[in-house]
Design brief:
about 300 residues; mainly alpha
Length: about 300
């Protein structure tokens, strides 16, 4: 008889399909973000660009979330990796797919800009919406200020994603809107400070087609958001273990009895780390050993596998 774990993994999308979804979703997000930012004159009307990008993230998550989990951003992938919801090898592949998709999206926008006669300098147009600090930011925000906002904003975005897609209390129809709204709010806040993207792949894609200063300052828009993502991932992992410990304290007797009788311990309605902690505790009490295949909790969430 096929076990519940085998039944789940047998029907998971292959890695190529997941990477394709991440690349296409990232391309879509960057194309809209760059295109709307350039053609809506962000210095006088920043809201349309931020809102359009947030809505695009929502649409991309609804369209591709059931395939890849709907990351479309390296910080989301890092947060999921640290939280134990994606394997390291898959996370690296996701990162590559997101960068490739983002660069393709920016390249398409660059081609469109070249066809607009009033935009005589395509690189300058991209530079006007590229991430920067100091003299390259609208508010001339210094590096320390950009660092703080990118770290805190990225941590918030990752926390919203992890919280909205984990556990039996999550709602598939709401999570993409929560993440998209968070993206829109953060972009609105960061646009005047220096076109802060809270997305290293997007920052990289824009830098490729912008003046040289964008590439020179690109390191900040990798280091800061990844720091924020790591903090959020660690916090989420700690919360999961704390929740698992509390749950075990309340239900250890019934869990042990169920395992002794050979019943399956249902861990699908909690996040991966809580489930792992519960399974390990039961194994210690009963002398049994249990191993489960690692899965992307976000993808399972979009598939409706909440328990």
């Amino acid at each position: 008889m096929t076990s519940p774990v085998q039944a789940t993994t047998d029907h998971e999308p292959v890695l190529f399909a997941r990477l394709s979804a991440e690349a296409v979703g990232s391309m879509f997000v960057v194309l809209v973000a760059v295109g709307v930012s350039i053609f809506s004159n962000p210095s006088s009307a920043p809201l349309p660009a931020a809102l359009a990008t947030g809505l695009t993230v929502t649409v991309a998550m609804l369209a591709f979330g059931h395939v890849s989990g709907g990351h479309f951003n390296p910080i989301i992938t890092l947060g999921n990796l640290i939280a134990g919801r994606i394997r390291a090898l898959a996370a690296v592949a996701y990162l590559a797919a997101q960068i490739i998709g983002s660069v393709i999206g920016a390249a398409l926008a660059f081609v469109v800009v070249l066809t607009v006669p009033v935009l005589t300098d395509a690189r300058a147009a991209f530079g006007s919406v590229a991430a920067g600090y100091g003299e390259h930011a609208a508010a001339q925000t210094q590096m320390a200020g950009v660092l703080i906002v990118e770290v805190v904003g990225s941590a918030l975005l990752v926390a919203v994603f992890l919280g909205a897609t984990a556990g039996r209390r999550a709602f598939p129809a709401v999570a993409p809107f929560a993440v998209g709204l968070c993206v829109a709010v953060l972009l609105q806040f960061g646009q005047v400070l220096g076109n802060l993207p809270f997305n290293p792949a997007r920052a990289t894609a824009l830098a490729f087609f912008s003046p040289s200063w964008a590439v020179e300052g690109l390191w900040l828009f990798w280091v800061a958001p990844l720091m924020g993502a790591a903090l959020a991932g660690l916090a989420f992992r700690g919360f999961a273990y704390a929740s698992a410990a509390t749950s075990l304290g309340d239900d250890s007797a019934s869990a042990t009895a169920g395992t002794i009788e050979g019943e399956h311990l249902d861990v699908d309605d909690t996040d991966d780390f809580q489930a792992e902690a519960e399974a390990e505790a039961v194994a210690v009490e009963t002398g049994t050993v249990r191993k489960e295949a690692a899965a992307d909790d976000a993808r399972n969430f979009f598939d409706g596998k909440k328990g």
